[in-house]
Batch of 3 targets.
Target 1
Amino acid sequence: MSNKQNYYPVIIIGGGQAGLAMGWELSKAKKEFLILEAASRIGESWRKRWDSLRLFSNAKHSSLPGLSFPGDPRGFPTKDQVADYLVEYAERAQLSVKLNARVESLKREGSRYSITTRSERYECDQAIVATGPYQKLRVPLWAADLDPRITQIHAGEYRNPSQLADGDVLVVGAGNTGAEIALELSKAGRQVWLSGRDVGQIPQLLRRLGNGGLFWFLATRVFTKSSPIGRRIHSSLRAGHGGPLVHIRSSELTDTGIERIPRVVGTRDGLPLLDNGRSLEVANVIWCTGFRLDFSWIHLPIFADDGYPIHTRGRVLSARGLYFLGLPFQQSMSSTLIGGVGRDAKLIAKWIVEFPKAA
């Protein structure tokens, strides 16, 4: 039976940058909506990331629609500055956000979508899943076989070097996260071993030209799913491979004494085992092995074998009125970046306004 009190024409699941940008666009279009956010405050997912984290893009290219990112446009915002910006954004736009509302189920019931949190049930005609791609920590199963005296932590839970035990550190995963954390630990006086393939690096000239404008042009207009190079980058990211280094140079890693080692393939006698047969004695392991998607709470037949939703630029054609926002390469390489999500939100808002006429 329909619960009229908790009915909204549109419900946005997720109150991060994607959900807030979507709310802004719907407000402009005079569409009634509600944003359901799992955390107790806006920007919480950013505040929980490691202390020294900075955005890949500078402030000039890190704005959501309608509000410029404050401060030096050439600077790279910290994670706390991002969180504060999101709070201000939601307040300025007077977005309707329900906090402490983690969605446990999304399904179709009759002509509407049914959304259930721990304490309430909602109905809507159209739903946008804006929870992003970084949902569950990914750690190999054999990590449980490591000696219990080795401190293990995933990058998603790492804050700073004080969390670790005394001694050497093995960082598994040499993408941007692994490289930046390894460099931080090395500068803090730790012996650091970095395991993972060389992912390359963004040329400094590319990042500097036009105050980052050239890189941003490529990320939004060239590295798209419609271009061969964009499809290659998308396939690599979807397969779980890290993108090229942005903030640091590969030479910085070796210059600070970080030792690059082969891939970690398992354990032997409780120690990490490399694919060259060597066991590594370390006191700490930091898993920079990324995240995996978890859309198990969506009870609809809309997913590919790898867990990604089957969509066209965010619209699920097999489920009318259902959209995703903030997915990798939803339109381009910039789709998961703060400065790029607004373009995707604007397109989805257009489809929402056209509903139910839109296919």
Target 2
Amino acid sequence: MKISRKEFLDRSTKIAAAAILSPLALHARELSPERKIRIALIGCGSVSRMYFPHLLKSPFVDLVCCCDIIPERAKTAAEKFKIFNLEP
């Protein structure tokens, strides 16, 4: 079965998001409803645009930081998805 690169990226991104969020959902149930798991995302390239929205929609995740080897790319992603780096 042959699939296009776009379809491969779409499928693999959804699988990766499910793999990441499933254990988080189980862990988040143990937490109080007000608390979320804080996540920092490394890598803001083209594929990240597919999973940023999924992470932001999750009721169990608080996306607090993103970074990339190209600082401008991280800044653009942070502005687009309203991610603000938080100090500890």
Target 3
Amino acid sequence: MTSTDIRAFVSYTHDSKDHRARALNLAQKLRENGIICQIDQFVPAPAEGWPRWMHAQIDTADFVLIVCSTTYMRRFEGNEAAPEGHGADWEGMRVMQELYERKSINDKFIPILFEGSSPDDIPKALRPYTYHRWPKGHEDLYRQLTRQPCISPAPLGKPMDLPLDP
């Protein structure tokens, strides 16, 4: 799979203007690096409505980058008072359902932490999996998305024939 074949979707909450800008920067940087990355800021008003648009993004993405914050975690886990946070609440339900159906095997949902966030901001359903700090960990994230390890194993040699003890 080449990087131009990889689709990613950025899921985040609109915590602040700065947080939205950092989420957009993440999407733009990945696009600059050849990843087809989508974020709601690219689509002012989807004709199919936001729930169906989000559903399609999650379904067609190879990876869903989940920008974790205290607000995101609260909404993802369904602990936000109405009427706030419908998007992250709905996306959280979709992610948990997919993990449930895959028996917790996760090669799609990647927690992302911006500066100022901590691993405690990762929703409990995603804590067992690798997360990346961004932008500091951009290379590690990109390696995961493109399946480019930083170390290759040595070639497998022939088994040794050991002498018997006398």
